[in-house]
Amino acid sequence: MIDAAPNASVPTRLFAFLATCACFALGMITLYSSGVGLIDPKLHRAGGFGLALIVAVAVSQKRRGVTTPAHLVVDGTLIFAGLWSIWSFQFVQTQMETALYDITTNDVWPALAGLVVFLELCRRLWGWGLFSVGTFGVIYLLFGQDLPGIMAHSGFSLKEVAEALWYNTNKGVFGSITNIVLSTVFIFIIFGVLLEGTGAGDTLLKFAFLATRRTRGGPAHAAILASSMFGTMSGSTVANIVGTGTFTIPMIKKRGFSPTFAAGIEATASSGGQIMPPIMGAAALVMADLTGVGYLNIILAALFPALFYYFSLFSAVTVEARRQGIEVQTMTVDDQITRTDLINSVLFIGPILVVIGSLLAGLSTSAAGFYAVVVLLVLSVINPEVRSDPARIWHSFLKGAESGATLLIAIAAIGILVGSLDSTGLGLKLANVIATIRGESLFSALLVAMAGALILGMGMPTLPAYLIIILVMGPAIQELGVSMLTAHMFVFYYGVASSLTPPVAIAAYAAAPIARANPLMTAFMSFRLGMAKFIIPFIFAFYPTILIIEEFSLFPFLWIMARTCFCIWLFSSALSGFDRRRLTVPEIVVRFATAFTCLTTDPILHVPAIAIGLALIAFDVHAGRPKETNSEVSQ
């Protein structure tokens, strides 16, 4: 919620009040369009951006802290220019619906003003990365005809740039991606924030501690479990880290793990929440619309790859606990589940069942989100904290709308890139270049795609990262012979993994201050712990049966499941250099080689590799047993 400081100036307070009203209006529009009735598409998009514009300016003021008269003049100009450009979009679209209408010179200036306004707000809220992406799209359209090689295009006039990037409901700022976010994603953003505000997150965390009380990792395992459940609902890596890490990281350190490890495991677990069904955050909702596969199918396809990822994290914690000699500890009174906790568990169980039940009943994804919000609001009264402070529901509702508004500013930059790539055909040209580099090898082509995806997504939130990667790399990956769903899942994983990739590992940088750990060392620890996320996409690219809805066959499915679990254990122990005992360098090298060979498609290679892996584990179990002394033997 946007609150002005008590000593803030009158104009600053006015901005904050307008932003609060805009958040409320945006939230109500979201509820109405999701579960009550349809809104005219052009009006929905124009209204959404108009309200997001006001919210974005107020949020940027709040982050800036000190607001001078000069700042107020600039901010007021941004709002005026932005609303003028949005009104122009609405006017032109109305004219196009009623008659043949060509973009005029007078229409160009508000369009260019709108591009400048939203790119500046994107810079303020999301940093230079997304700003650079959007700016590239504009500059490339204007001056790309002078570039060499495949980068060159036929050239675009100012009118054509305005039409491609502004006055277009298929691409550009007001394109189809904006429609998906407004009509589908917004309601789940509000749902996730309300879920946290009603106290469901605290209860969820307590159940996670109860479920993992008999494991060596204890709170570290609880952090993984809680983050997977909390992250699938919140859809935000940083929000997940702050929401669960504040409690789990100190407890992980108290159990005996290093600060770097505590921050690293929370960062990797929190980033994985977005690949964990049943909700998977905003990116999965967009994927369902872009692929036309259906949200239920996306959930089903993502299930086992996500379970593999969390199994790898559980394995990493177990191995690390063994290495440090950490044993199972008894549960304290504070960890025990109370009657209030059992009652509050309905707060997250009920809405999730409503989402799944609505989808199975054939309702739209947005309607499922709407009914989940309604059920959550009705159930929230069972929490004594909500009854004593009902205002927390109001604050959460406004906070959810604010999160959606700031996301919409990022989508504006993505829309500009979409319009640029679509108008110039650059994405297809890059696909041809990648096809030339890869030669005849699918594996090498996927490596090139992985590297490109990590670079493109580095430092960005998951949804913008996923959209940029699929726009640039998607055509190339589909040309490799993989299906559309597999291609989208492949880049989606690396969109999530980019938050763990040094040097710009935003998840690690969010977790490190909580643990008082070195951010860069935390980034490398997160990268090591989350290494499975870099391997799993290759597995389902070569074995699409893991995605269940594609080429499913029971025996191949069970066989690759077993091999993947075996590979993950070998890989986790090799990365830690420890299993039942400390591993030697040759053992680590052989485990790495064996783990990768287990996943090859040729049985001539993977069957002997499995035998070697089993022999390595058997030798380790034998060597790790306590040695009997001579006196014990003589007795």
Report on this model:
With 635 residues, the chain is mainly alpha-helical. It has a domain at 556-635. The chain has 29 helices and no strands. The protein has helices at residues 10-35, 41-64, 69-98, 105-126, 128-143, 158-165, 176-197, 200-211, 219-234, 237-255, 259-272, 281-291, 295-324, 339-344, 346-360, 365-379, 384-388, 391-424, 426-438, 442-457, 462-478, 484-497, 506-515, 519-529, 532-542, 554-576, 585-597, 603-623, 630-634. The relative contact order is 0.10. Mean pLDDT is 84; it is low at 628-635.
Brief account:
With 635 residues, the chain is an all-alpha fold. It is 75% helix and 0% strand.
Low-pLDDT parts are 628-635
Beta-strand segment tally: 0
Structural class: mainly alpha
Our estimate of the beta-strand percent is under 5%
What is the mean pLDDT?
84
| N-C termini distance | 74 Å
Assign an overall shape: globular
Helix content: over 70%
User: What's the order of the H and E elements?
Assistant: HHHHHHHHHHHHHHHHHHHHHHHHHHHHH
Number of helices: 29
Describe the largest sheet. none
Q: Kindly provide the radius of gyration, computed on alpha-carbon positions and rounded to a whole number of angstroms.
A: 26 Å
